[in-house]
């Protein structure tokens, strides 16, 4: 018996609301199971993670000659923080699963061109997110050292773990999202929502924003850390502008050819030298009239 929900028998991928809810529930359950399994693995990675994020505090002790320690405020805080961090790690480890489940849920509602754009966004955003995480990890020691340098002489930094760990997580996620912004701009441009010239007009504000973020990360005399952050952000931003402008030019040429009455075969065919020469002569004749 033929499946009524197959792509052949149901090319528009139409589903009843009940079927949508059932599919959504199944995909949420699969994502949750993957996250829980990842969190179990996160329990084993918890101690190495804590040791790694404590290194900037150890560096403060060595470079500034004063005490900077990670403090657990009460009896249950160490366990609750371990559970929270393990869930964060599990969410990251399960990312391929829940991203696929999200993709599989929304794909039937997309056209072929939209699927291409969505796939391009996912495969571009994930590497950029990882690059942002790596950059944040490199800049974290300098940020911690600079922010604790404002302590008065003879004082110590007894930092609560339930404050320090969210600070590290937010610090890294903020940097990672900053690296995804150029991908989002390109995606909005390809969907026809934002033109490249419009983005280019705001370049001064972007430079100020990037410089401010980099300066907050590496205040004082640590210019190289500021450069390491600002340089890739600006590079990817202007690369996104270039891609958007080139896409706009190609799109405008296609629209101009469509307005001239060309069909799809003529539209995809390269312009011949004779046609280019004819276009040049037409422009000369038009300019001669005026």
From TrEMBL:
One of its GO terms (biological process) is intracellular protein transmembrane transport. It is found in: Cell membrane; Membrane. InterPro entries: TatC. GO terms for molecular function: proton motive force dependent protein transmembrane transporter activity. Pfam families: TatC. One of its GO terms (cellular component) is TAT protein transport complex. Its main location: membrane. This is Sec-independent protein translocase protein TatC.
């Amino acid at each position: 018996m033929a499946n009524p929900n197959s792509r052949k028998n149901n090319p528009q991928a139409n589903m009843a609301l009940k079927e949508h809810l059932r599919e959504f529930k199944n995909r949420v359950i699969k994502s949750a199971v993957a996250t829980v399994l990842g969190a179990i693995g996160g329990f084993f990675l918890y101690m190495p993670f804590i040791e790694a994020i404590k290194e900037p505090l150890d560096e403060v002790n060595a470079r500034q000659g004063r005490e900077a320690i990670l403090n657990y405020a009460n009896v249950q805080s160490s366990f609750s923080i371990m559970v929270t961090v393990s869930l964060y790690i599990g969410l990251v480890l399960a990312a391929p699963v829940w991203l696929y489940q999200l993709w599989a849920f929304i794909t039937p509602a997309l056209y072929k061109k939209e699927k291409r754009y969505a796939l391009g966004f996912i495969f571009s955003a994930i590497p950029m997110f990882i690059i942002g995480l790596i950059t944040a990890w490199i800049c974290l020691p300098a940020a911690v050292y600079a922010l604790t340098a404002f302590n008065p002489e003879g004082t110590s930094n007894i930092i609560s773990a339930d404050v320090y760990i969210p600070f590290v997580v937010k610090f890294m996620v903020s940097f990672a999202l900053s690296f995804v912004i150029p991908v989002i701009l390109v995606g909005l441009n390809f969907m026809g929502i934002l033109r490249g010239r419009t983005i280019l007009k705001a370049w001064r504000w972007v430079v100020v924003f990037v410089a401010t973020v980099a300066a907050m990360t590496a205040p004082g005399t640590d210019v190289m850390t500021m450069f390491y952050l600002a340089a890739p952000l600006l590079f990817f931003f202007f690369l996104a502008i270039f891609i958007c402008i080139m896409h706009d030019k190609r799109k405008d040429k296609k629209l101009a050819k469509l307005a001239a009455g060309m069909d799809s075969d003529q539209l995809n065919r390269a312009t011949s030298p004779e046609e280019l020469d004819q276009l040049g002569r037409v422009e000369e004749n038009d300019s001669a009239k005026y």
